[in-house]
Design brief:
CATH topology of chain B: Sufe protein. Chain: A
Shape of chain B: globular
Structural class of chain A: alpha/beta
Strand content of chain B: 5-15%
Strand content of chain A: 5-15%
CATH architecture of chain B: Alpha-Beta Complex
Largest sheet of chain A: 5 strands, parallel
Radius of gyration of chain B: 15 Å
Number of strands of chain B: 3
Number of helices of chain A: 10
Strand order of the largest sheet of chain A: 1-5-4-2-3
Oligomer: heterodimer
Order of helices and strands of chain A: HEHEEHEHEHHEHEHEHEH
Shape of chain A: globular
Distance between the termini of chain B: 32 Å
Helix content of chain B: 40-55%
Distance between the termini of chain A: 47 Å
Chain lengths: ~290, ~150
């Protein structure tokens, strides 16, 4: 077993991660795509990054264009999700592997949305796009066209892993994890450092939230830290326990999807919800409590 | 949208984008990203001499040079951009502005309407949220031209 395999096997749900070595083998064995193959998806912050070169056989999924409703601030519905899946040759029982830029932020976000629709077998490439590139592995601009298949219209089941503003108000006093940068948490900044202002009227954090910037869970190469290192942060330092009812949030719910993945799949927490309204809702809502 | 026309060079690019399908728009944008000229030697390694555009999702630096001339009509503008390869959308926006505006006179650049980025039909292909970067780049280019021609 390689060191990476040993690291992954220690997580609560090791089946949720694949290594770049494993993926490279699948690519060269022709295991990507086709009716019985794995479907590999790239989900990036930059809408054009996939086009500059992607892992051979990978298809693109864009969080904004494909997974968000174009009108309401919400995710797509079951019918649209079925369409997005079917067009990519994904059936209900297909193994889907997702990877992306920025330490898999947007990949984790896509995985979380897949989970809202109960897609069973969805995994992340540990280290994402950056690790694959750093290892000098192949990228291509060639786009494969999958055969469209039927994907059932699945009802989106938000309640177990998604929190809305009212849920968070009812949750106050129980564990909350704010995964934004320290400056956003303290209220000094209204947006991420180096990012555009995205319009919050107030700065600060939800009362009682602990500040654990998402990036603390990522190693230098973009892969996840070992279970031991993650436990040192979330269990020992922050005092959380896997049976806790936890809500994670950030600015729009993308960075907190990364933390949701860590707590749920790597550390085995049973009740973690991602509050995707996050600060762009809370920091604009009238008369919700804020702490600075 | 205002009725102010775009300079011919920019209008032609806008027309290419508008008449393309969403997939083709992304391919076109990729070409602009690929073809964005690198910084000349006098700026390479001197990003502090460039202005940082914070509204872009990924860091972009730009600067403007305005040649001497008797009036704004005969003072050509040169544009310089720097953005990393991992930010192809930002590079693509910069590439469009470079291709469409570089070499025009200061008067022509200042006359470009502020809503020009919205005339490419790109919002539906890349999402409206991501268009802000291009609006900000244009705003800063015009501001620099204004500052560098104010005597």
């Amino acid at each position: 077993m390689s060191a990476e395999d040993t690291k992954i096997s220690a997580y609560a749900h090791p089946e949720r991660l694949v290594t770049t070595d494993w993926l490279a083998e699948q690519v060269s064995a022709g295991g990507i795509g086709g009716p019985d193959g794995i479907v590999l998806l790239e989900s990036d912050e930059d809408v054009l990054l996939y086009e500059t070169g992607h892992i051979p056989g990978a298809l693109k999924i864009d969080w904004h264009v494909d997974l968000n409703d174009p009108v309401t601030r919400d995710y797509v519905d079951g019918a649209r999700f079925a369409e997005v899946m079917g067009q990519r040759g994904i059936s209900r029982d297909t193994t889907v592997v997702i990877y992306g830029d920025k330490s898999n932020w947007w990949a984790a976000y896509a995985l979380w949305v897949f989970s809202l629709f109960g897609h069973e077998d969805v995994r992340l490439l540990d280290g994402g796009r950056a690790k694959w590139v750093a290892e000098g592995r192949e990228l291509t601009r060639e786009v494969t066209s999958p055969t469209t298949v039927d994907y059932p219209v699945a009802e989106r089941d938000d309640a177990p892993i998604r929190a809305f503003k009212d849920d968070v108000l009812a949750h106050l006093g129980k564990p909350l994890v704010d995964v934004r940068s320290p400056g956003e948490y303290s209220g000094e900044l209204l947006h991420m450092p180096d990012y555009p202002q995205e319009g919050a009227m107030r700065g600060g954090h939800i009362p009682g939230a602990k500040s654990v910037p998402w990036a603390r869970a990522a190693a230098e190469d973009g892969s996840f830290k070992s279970r031991e290192d993650l436990e040192a942060i979330y269990l020992e330092e922050q005092g959380l326990t896997p049976s806790d009812d936890v809500v994670a949030y950030c600015r729009i719910g993308e960075r907190s999807s990364h933390t949701w993945f860590v707590l749920t799949h790597l550390l085995g927490f049973e009740a973690v919800r991602n509050y995707d309204g996050s600060w762009t809702e809370w920091g604009n809502a009238v008369r919700v409590p804020i702490e600075k | 949208m205002s009725d102010t026309p775009l300079p011919t060079s920019l209008a032609e690019i806008a027309e290419d984008f508008r008449s393309a399908s969403n997939d083709l728009k992304l391919q076109l944008l990729l070409e602009f990203s690929d073809e964005l000229p690198g910084l000349p030697e006098r700026y390479a390694g001197h990003l502090d001499q460039l202005e940082r555009v914070d509204e872009c999702q990924s860091p972009l630096f730009l600067t403007v040079e305005v040649a001497d001339g008797a009036s704004l009509e005969d003072r050509p503008v040169s544009l310089f951009f720097d953005a990393p390869a991992e930010a192809p959308t930002t590079r693509g926006f910069a590439g469009i502005l470079h291709e469409g505006l570089d070499g025009l006179s200061a008067a022509e650049v200042l006359a470009v309407p502020d809503d020009a980025p919205m005339r490419f039909g790109l919002a539906e292909a890349v999402s409206p949220l991501r268009m802000r970067g291009m609006v900000a780049m244009l705003g800063r280019i015009k501001r620099q031209v204004r500052a560098k021609t104010a005597d």
